[in-house]
Amino acid sequence: MRTNSDLDASGRTIYGEEFLLAQAHSLLNFAKGSVAVNGGFGYLDSDGSVNSDMPREAYVQCRMTQIFGLAHLLGLSDSKDLVDYGVQSLLQLFQDTSSGGFFNAIANDGQAVPGDKLAYDHMFVLLAAATAKGIGSPRANELFTLIDGIIEKYFWDEEYSLMKNGWSQDFSRLNGYRGINANMHAVEALSAAYDVTGDEKFRDRAYRICKRAVDEFARNNNWFLPEHFNEKWVPDPEFNVDNPADKFCPYGVTIGHLLEWSRLTLQVEIQMAGSGEDLSWMRQAAIDLYATARKCGWAIDGTDGFVYTIGWDGKPLVRSRMHWVVAEAAMTAYTLWKITGDDAYLSDHNQYWQFISNHHIDKGAGSWHHEISPDFQVGEGTWSGKPDVYHAFNACVLPLYSLDATFIGTALKINSAND
């Protein structure tokens, strides 16, 4: 296994190769407990056991498949069988063979949970399929072809250069809501699909979504990126005002998404080099998004850590500290350091990892506490248990290897170099 020594060579952080590799292995071991007796990956409780009261959710299947695939390619774990298992679960449990696409969740009796077919889930299916295809999982091509067709038919909107959000479960009725969260993960998944296939359709769509979200919606709102829109992509700033701490569609400005869009913008810029597109807006836009997130999100209420959301007036709204937000902050700060050479970003990266180590890492039961209160107590106002190691694992491995456009692209290069 070959890692990138830049972080250790800096001499400015203790959160280098040894620490990050240990964390990655710990997270993988925790994640392996998610294999459910009735198929698929289950929702993990705080102690690492499958919560039998929770349905199996599509995005969890996909995220587990992604991290096991990366771990296998990077030589961190012999986990190809878990990738194969994830692909099999998506095709056999979650695929709707009647109406098409994938169910949002499967109950313990094997029946689909009522609910819309969501772009969010389908983008993660594409990410899982691309990762599985990259490692040569037996049914990955089948899954990849299937999800590519579903996205093409139901979700990609050529007129707006963005993804539609949700359909009724039988795909007969399109929801009028449009959301930026699903489009953010579309950029992630499309970029991964490009790195695996070389098909420029995926790369170009990732760029088009990124340009609309960042260069238009965020820039035109002083980098306070609107999350919610109507069917014509007119912002709906009061959406979910009565449910501000929603897991996936919170009211106001989601600080973690500013950070995630910043990193994705930088990675799409790498991928688009030589495309002929004008990329001059991308670097500074990423810097501005990050600066806004740090200024308006970190310790804005007088306590260390990123708040979950702020209102349109810039004041803290949901003050809980979510694990995924600081994980994205660490990845974005590192990426900005590598690209700009500005050591201030490395200092930020170190600060975020110190916070993670002090408050999020569960040194007893394993994995990371998903939510903590402003006074650093474990909370469950939005998240219960520890279902997701995807943000945390990715934050561990990103600084260890050469910076590329996507995780799967990097892993494939590392794997090829080690052969």
Radius of gyration: 20 Å
Number of domains: 1
Low-confidence stretches: none
Helices and strands, in order, run as HHEHHEEHHEEEEHHEEHHEEEHHEHH
Quaternary assembly: single chain
Overall pLDDT metric: 96
**Total number of strands:** 13
Question: How would you portray this structure in words?
Answer:
This protein is mainly alpha-helical and 419 residues long. The chain has a single domain (6-418), classed as Glycosyltransferase (Alpha/alpha barrel). The protein is 50% helix and 6% strand. The chain has 14 helices and 13 strands. The chain has helices at residues 6-9, 17-31, 58-73, 80-94, 119-135, 140-155, 180-197, 200-218, 255-272, 282-297, 323-340, 343-360, 390-397, 407-418, and strands at 56-57, 105-106, 117-118, 156-157, 162-163, 166-167, 178-179, 228-229, 253-254, 309-310, 316-318, 321-322, 371-372. The strands form six sheets. Strands 9-10-11 form a three-stranded antiparallel beta sheet. Helix 2 (17-31) runs antiparallel to helix 13.
Describe how the helices and strands are arranged:
Blueprint lengths: L5 H4 L7 H15 L24 E2 H16 L6 H15 L10 E2 L10 E2 H17 L4 H16 E2 L4 E2 L2 E2 L10 E2 H18 L2 H19 L9 E2 L23 E2 H18 L9 H16 L11 E2 L5 E3 L2 E2 H18 L2 H18 L10 E2 L17 H8 L9 H12 L1
Antiparallel strand pairs: 1-2, 3-6, 4-5, 7-8, 9-10, 10-11, 12-13
Helix pairs in contact: 2-13, 3-4, 3-5, 4-5, 5-6, 5-7, 7-8, 7-9, 8-9, 8-10, 9-10, 9-11, 11-12, 11-13
Question: Which key terms come to mind for this protein?
Answer:
419 residues, three-stranded antiparallel sheet, Glycosyltransferase, 14 helices, 13 strands, two-stranded antiparallel ribbon, globular, mainly alpha, 50% helix
